[in-house]
Amino acid sequence: MVMILAFVLVAAVAVGLGLGLSKNEKDMAVYNPFLEDDMAVMDPFNEEELTVETKIVILDDPASPQARANRWLSRDPNLESLPLKRQLARFALATIFFATQGGTSWSRRDRWLEYHTSECEWHTSHPEPVCDDQDNFLFFNLSRNSLAGTVPYESIHLRGLRIFDISNNNIGGQNPLGTPESVEILDYSHNQLEGKIWFESGWIGWNMTTVRLNDNMLTGTLPATAGMILPKLQVMMGARNRFTGPIPDVDMYGMKLHLQHWDYAENLLTGTLPRNMATFANLISFNVSHNPGMTGTVPTKIGLLRNLTYFGIENTGITGTIPDVACELPMVQFDTDSDKDELYCCSERCSVENWENC
Fold first, then answer.
1. Phi, psi for residue 262 in degrees, rounded to 5
2. Which of 66, 110, 200, 239 could form a disulfide with 123 if both were Cys (CB 3.0 to 4.6 A apart)?
3. How far is the C-alpha of 74 from the C-alpha of 64, rounded, in Å?
């Protein structure tokens, strides 16, 4: 009898507490963002900021990452008290979470999607705090965290983002769009991306200094407009993909690029080295090794690259003589085929057997 009364008392207290909860608090208590069977269709949390495409997906496909993120955010009991930038950041992060199989694939997801935990405190691979003292989300870093799936366009809502790093995961799909224009470092290296590199119309990465796309399965030709839409680019890594065609020989009308490191080794590139080497006057390292389809000779204007320390053309079809002006570069190392009779280094000052003197 005592046990029955105790059970009734506990049940009554539970019901009483339930009656005291607000609707949002009830939703928070019963909603589990990892449940696949929660397919309620909810209006977009913000009609003005989201793109038409995102709103259509939210309403038409309740199983989509966008719809799941919208449900999660719409049920946040703190939503109305959050400034717009944080609402958008949490929506973007939640969409990324669902699109990259955060509930099933990630190695760590500590505190992710907890309503009463700031997104600044969700698990990250970044060694430093990811937000500044104004709660601006600056560093998205989930490298080596077993992410799968694809990167959604909605990452563009991480306004003010400086680093986007999902390297060393299992991200697939086509070349992702939606990179915020504020990003300085973009790292998709060591994933499973496919398709061509292409940029959204009108998009310019004003602050982008580093792009790492190496070790994927990307195809197509190298974009000739990269220097114009990434005006501050210093590091471009695209080695070990399946890129084809020639290296764009772009005349920037006297303008010198900031590019310092350029690596597209182990692809399927063809054609000759660019003639307009003056455009790349700030280069420190240049590597097209293991592109056997590349032909031609080393251009004489390589002597304009006064900062050059590494020039990789091993296992290519490039022949002829490395110009003598290259010997005047103080620190340059040429990585060539030492057994290739057709390629001679600085004919009057070095020998094929003595590359370190070049």
1. -135, 115
2. 110
3. 15
Can you spell out the DSSP letters for 129-192? -SB-TT--B-EEE-TTS---S---GGGGG-TT--EEE--SS---SS------TT-SEEE--SS-
* Lowest model confidence (mean pLDDT) among 15-29, 272-286, 321-335: 15-29
User: Where do we find the tokens 């600085």?
Assistant: 346
Interacting residues of 65 by C-beta distance below 8 A, sequence separation 6+: 95, 96, 97, 98, 99, 152
The rounded distance, in Å, linking the Cα atoms of 67 and 59 is 7
Rounded distance, CA 349 to CA 357, Å? 8
Taking the C-alpha atoms of residue 64 and residue 177, their distance in angstroms, rounded to an integer, is: 17
This prediction's pTM: 0.84
Instruction: Give residue-wise pLDDT tens across range 14-56.
Output: 434 444 444 444 334 334 555 545 678 889 999 899 999 999 9
Amino acid at 354: N
Task: Report whether 207 contacts 185 (CB < 8 A).
Answer: no
Q: Percentage of the chain with pLDDT > 90?
A: 61
Strands 310-312 and 333-335 turn out to be parallel
Residue whose structure tokens are 């080497």: 277
Q: Which amino acid is at 106?
A: W
DSSP code at position 247: P
User: Is the pLDDT confidence value at 266 over 60?
Assistant: yes
159 band by pLDDT with thresholds 50, 70 and 90? very high
CA atoms within 13 A on the CB side of 75: 22
CB-based contacts of 41: which residues, under 8 Å, 6+ apart?
A: 59, 62, 67
CA 100 to CA 147: how far, in whole Å?
Answer: 5
What is the rounded CA–CA span in Å between residue 234 and residue 281? 12
**Count of other CB atoms within 10 angstroms of residue 330:** 8
Q: Angle, nearest 10°, between helix axes 52-60 and 65-74?
A: 90
- pLDDT above 70: residue 243: yes
